[in-house]
Amino acid sequence: MHHCRALKFENRPNYEAMRKLFRDLMAKMKEPYDYVFDWSLADPSKKTTDENLDQNAKNEQTQEVNSDKKSSAHKSSVLYNC
After folding, report:
1. Can you tell me the distance from the alpha carbon of 29 to that of 32, in angstroms, rounded to the nearest whole number?
2. Cβ(7)–Cβ(27) under 8 Å?
3. For residues 16 and 26, is the Cβ–Cβ distance under 8 A?
4. Could you report the per-residue pLDDT of 22-32, keeping only the tens digit for each?
C-alpha cells in the first residue's frame, strides 16, 4: 500500500512487484494460485473443482513454455542480426 499511495498521478505502479507480493502471499498461506478469482465465478459460493485447478495449472505451464520459446527465439534473432 505504501508504494501505491506514494505514487504521483503520472507515475505507473510497479505491476510486476505487486503481482509478486500476491504470489508470495498465496504461497505463504498455502493457497493455490489458480487464477480463479471470486469475481470471475458465476456463483461465488461454489468452490472450484480439482478439474478446474488442474486445467488452470496446465494453462499456466503452457504460457510459461510459450514465453520461454519466444524469449529463446528473440535471443537467437538478436545474435543472428549482430
Report:
1. 9
2. no
3. no
4. 889 989 999 88
